[in-house]
């Protein structure tokens, strides 16, 4: 029994540490998103710079969702299931992953142009998609 108690205490400490780091990282991502959104107001959206800034905002937004997943391990989730556009999640995940994949890896995602709403925890569905692609 003492070994199980020690393991439980270790896991609790790791969860608290992860929650603290996730909170700090979330603040950094918020700063990145805010700066990119402000910069986007100074450029035309259809320019290369505008598209790059939009990509930064989307990536930071996904990063914030990942941070929420980490925080879910340190405290129970209150968000739960909600209507989520699965098609949008798949498109965004594939677009985010493609630049970082090795050249010999190809991702072919055939996603409907119309919303594909499902009742899920959006943080978990993103995690599943990331795991499938990496």
UniProtKB/TrEMBL annotation:
Its EC number is 2.7.13.3. This is histidine kinase. Keywords: Kinase, Transferase. The keyword Signal does not apply. It comes from Oceanidesulfovibrio marinus. The keyword Transferase applies. It is an enzyme of class 2 (transferase). It catalyses: ATP + protein L-histidine = ADP + protein N-phospho-L-histidine. CDD domains: HisKA (cd00082). GO terms for molecular function: phosphorelay sensor kinase activity. Residues 13-79 form the Signal transduction histidine kinase dimerisation/phosphoacceptor domain. SUPFAM superfamilies: ATPase domain of HSP90 chaperone/DNA topoisomerase II/histidine kinase, Homodimeric domain of signal transducing histidine kinase. It comes from the Bacteria.
């Amino acid at each position: 029994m003492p070994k199980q108690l020690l393991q439980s205490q270790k896991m609790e400490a790791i969860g608290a540490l992860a929650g603290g780091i996730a909170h700090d990282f979330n603040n950094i991502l918020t700063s990145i998103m805010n700066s990119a959104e402000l910069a986007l107001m100074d450029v035309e959206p259809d320019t290369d710079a505008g598209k790059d800034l939009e990509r930064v905002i989307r990536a930071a937004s996904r990063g914030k969702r990942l941070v929420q997943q980490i925080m879910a391990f340190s405290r129970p989730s209150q968000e739960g299931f909600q209507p989520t556009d699965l098609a949008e999640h798949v498109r965004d995940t594939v677009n985010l992953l493609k630049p970082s994949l090795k050249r010999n890896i190809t991702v072919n995602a055939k996603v409907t142009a119309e919303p594909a709403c499902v009742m899920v925890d959006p943080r978990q569905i993103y995690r599943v998609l990331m795991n499938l692609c990496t």
